[in-house]
Every structure is written in structure tokens, then in C-alpha cells.
Amino acid sequence: MLCSLYVDRRKIEVNGTDGLVEVVVLNDDIQRDPLGPVGLFEPPGCARRNGGSTVGMMRLLVVDDEIDLANTVAAALRREGYAVDVTHSGQEALDRLLINPYDLVLLDLTLPDIDGLEVCNTIRTDPMFDPTTRILMVTARDSVGDRVIGLDQGADDYLIKPFALQELSARVRTLLRRETTGGDSVLEAGGLSLDTARQSVLWNGNEIELTTKEFSLLRYFMSHPEEVLSQERLLEHVWDEMLDPFTNTARVTVGTLRRKLAGATGVQHIETVIGAGYRFLQDPVEGESGDPVEGSDL
């Protein structure tokens, strides 16, 4: 099997068998440039296998000084439906964490400026950082002592390179669902059943077809039922930093999601709160129209 994708104008080829592959970066001269102690991955550019799992959108930060590896992992996670930002130093990671509400940090330990253990300890002990941010250490430090130290410093999980992308995805999915679903992969709200592992949405046993972004948006709504969610908050958690903050993408996606849900269920699950945002209703109202409230400026 051979798959390719392009990251920062560099071609990355993926070769492998039995579900595990080796990532090889080809430089501008098309000479093989092995990607250091790279992990084993499921091809991010290949078609997903039947039964492959994808979760709804949450915002992740990948911190790794191996640029090609970090970008490859980010591309694969985006394919799984996550909003992913990338940084290559400990200080930049801390700076971004002060600005953006990340749900999970994938943290390498061997960074050029600050050791990843110190970054983890800062996140856990400095009151300026959100203590609920989950941390998955992804590192080549593989001794039992290293793992114990990493977990004692505050990591929620520890994954050793090389690794299979399927395992990385499973660990990420498990960490992200602990708080919102109590460890269950299925969300239930408003009569809808959303399975984060199978990426499916059911209404009375019938599946509703959604795009990856619509599924991600619905997962965030169902994780916060009856809360008024501003457009800015949706942009922060459902899209990554590459999105233009002045775009109407959120409004358009909410509109298409609302119309699909209304068409499939005959009721309204998402209401517009004029001047404030949107609210997912535990008790949806009658009506098939997916249009926003008249006079809404959202």
C-alpha cells in the first residue's frame, strides 16, 4: 500500500502492511529523508477502513519539534475530525495555551527550549492555565521511570514512539470523552443519539447523514445542551486557528446543520438567541423549518 500527502509543500509517502505503516518524507530533491524516530501510523491520506473511528470536533494542540512528524500527526487528526494547531517549542505552546482554549495537548518531551516535563508541570501548577486541559505525552522516552515521572508531573496519559495512529486516536478519544460523557462514546440529548466512535447520529433508530464538520458541531452542541453558545465560542472549539475569525463559516454551518436535523426529525433542535448565540434544546420544538429566528444578527 502506498499513500501520499503534502505538508508545507513536502511530499510524505506512507508505506506499510498489516495496518501499520512507516512515514517517509521526501525532500525537494525527491531523495529519501527518513523522519528520525518516527512512529508507525495509519495512512492519513488513505481511505478509512470500515469500522474506523472518528470523534466530534474538539481543539487540540500538537507540540513536537520534529516539524514533519508534527504536521503529519496534525493532518491525520484533522482527518479524524479535530481542530488541530501545531507548535514546535515549549514556550510557544505555553503562549498559545494562554490564548486558546485547548481541550487536549499532545506533548513531546524533547523540545529545543523547555523540556516537556516542565511544560506539563507549568500547565498543572500555574493558575494562569486551565487545569482541565488534558495532556497526552507522546515521546520516545520509554522507560518505566520516564512514564512514572510524566504521569506524576500531571500527564493524563503517556504514549511511546513509535506508535500506531489507531492507538493514538483511541487514546485521544478516550481522554476527550471522559468529562462530557463519563467515558461513554455515545451522547444522548434532545432525542438524538450521537456515537463518537462510529461517527453516527440516530433519531428513532434512523441515521442522519452529516458532513464531518456538521457532526463535529453537533457533538459540541450536544455536549453543552441548553447553554447559549456564542459564535466566537463555536469558532474557538470547532475550528482551528487557520480559520478567518471574521468569516461567516460558523453561521452557515449552523444553518445547514439545523436544516438537516429539522428535515430528518420534524422538530427544531437548535434555536438562535438573538445577539447572543445558539442553544441546543433538550426538548426540541415542533416545526421543520431550519431557518434562524427572524431578525437574528447571527
Question: What is the overall pLDDT average?
Answer: 75
Give the CATH superfamily of the largest domain. Answer: Response regulator
Number of helix segments?
Answer: 8
> How many domains, as an integer?
2
* N-to-C SSE string, H for helix and E for strand: EEEEEEHEHEHEHEHEEEEHEHHEE
Number of strand elements: 17
Strand content: 25-35%
Low-confidence stretches: 1-56, 290-298
Radius of gyration (Å): 20 Å
Main sheet? 5 strands, antiparallel
Kindly, what is the distance between the CA atoms of the first and last residues, rounded to a whole number of angstroms? 46 Å
CATH topology (fold) name of the largest domain? Rossmann fold
Helix content: 25-40%
Note the overall shape: elongated
Kindly describe this structure.
- The protein has two domains: 48-179, 3-Layer(aba) Sandwich (Rossmann fold); 186-286, Arc Repressor Mutant, subunit A.
- The strands form four sheets. Strands 1, 2, 3, 4 and 5 form a five-stranded antiparallel β-sheet that branches. Strands 7-6-8-9-10 form a five-stranded parallel β-sheet, with helices on both faces.
- The longest helix has 17 residues, at 165-181.
- Helix 2 packs parallel to helix 3.
- The protein is α+β, with helices and mostly antiparallel strands.
- The chain has helices at residues 67-79, 90-99, 116-125, 144-152, 165-181, 212-223, 231-238, 249-265; strands at 2-7, 10-17, 20-26, 32-34, 40-41, 59-63, 83-87, 104-107, 134-139, 157-160, 186-189, 192-195, 200-203, 206-207, 228-229, 267-273, 277-286.
- It contains eight helices and 17 strands.
- Mean pLDDT is 75; it is low at 1-56 and 290-298.
